[in-house]
Amino acid sequence: MRRAGGFVVLGSACLASLASAEIPLDQRKSGADFISAATRAMQEDDTANPAMLSTLDGESMWNEKAGGAQKSCGDCHGPAPKSMKGVAARYPAYNVARQAPVDLSGQINACRTDQQKAEAFKPESAQLLALSAYIGSQSRGLPVSPPDDARLASFRARGEALWSQRIGQLNFSCAQCHDDNWGKRLGSALIPQAHPNAYPIYRLDWQGMGSLQRRFRNCMSGVRAEAYPYGAQEFIDLEVFLAHRARGMPVETPGVRP
């Protein structure tokens, strides 16, 4: 695989690892543990968290009628603080109609097309990120709880294999950095454990919101690999694995990162 651009400064941290091992459950840390106190305080204060602007947009969208069915999310589900509590913590989940897992944004678009008879939101669109953040925020503080569903097993296994697969011109895997060398430095930045429990996030570097798949694509560019397109099965498989890897950790959506 190859991709131009995305230059990274390499430290000794990622060079040291030849084999990866999953982080023990009692040693897992949120991405918030690897950011400055000021950024962490920004995330924890809804009046300062810039992602809350998007979340408020999502709240408005929840009640907007859309599509040929002229239904809102609330028409089917009722008030989100009650009906959506714990929902984001259970995604990705198996979608029977599609015979494959979908992440939360995929389920939102499934509802758009199947129930509201509306056009699906575009990947990384402000609308999709806003509604994902609003629904996700209803699960804040609840544990990541991937479904105990045998139908997810093969997808999770493929995600784990992708996590450990070396890619790109730099020949690194996700696991080499985030399992083996978390807490060390890649250039000037601390390496986090890469848990998905705060997405979608507002990233200061982006000056805007972004999904977990956007973060995947950033990392792939960083190791000079060709990034999968948004919605690719490979990304969904990775999300299934990462939800299992983060099981029990509290949801922090919407997060703030450097």
Describe the protein in words:
Helix 2 packs across helix 6 and helix 7 crosses helix 10. The longest helix has 13 residues. Strands 6-5-7 form a three-stranded mixed sheet. The N terminus is likely disordered. Strand 3 and strand 4 form a beta hairpin. The protein is mostly helical and 258 residues long. The chain has two domains: 130 residues, Cytochrome Bc1 Complex, Chain D, domain 2, CATH 1.10.760.10; 84 residues, Cytochrome c-like domain (Cytochrome Bc1 Complex, Chain D, domain 2, Orthogonal Bundle).
In short:
The protein is mainly alpha-helical and 258 residues long. It is 36% helix and 7% strand. The radius of gyration is 18 Å and the shape is globular.
CATH-defined architecture of the largest domain: Orthogonal Bundle
Report the span from N to C terminus: 28 Å
The helix-strand sequence is HHHHEEHHHHEEEEHHE
The percent range for helix content is: 25-40%
Strand content: 5-15%
Give the total of domains. Answer: 2
Give the total of beta strands.
Answer: 7
CATH class term of the largest domain:
Mainly Alpha
Total count of helical runs of at least 4 residues = 10
**Radius of gyration, Cα only, in angstroms?**
18 Å
Spatial ordering of strands, largest sheet: 6-5-7
- Could you say which overall geometry the principal axes of the C-alpha atoms support? globular
Structural class of the secondary elements? mainly alpha
> What name does the CATH topology of the largest domain carry?
Cytochrome Bc1 Complex, Chain D, domain 2
Largest sheet: 3 strands, mixed
CATH superfamily of the largest domain: Cytochrome c-like domain
Low-confidence stretches: 1-19
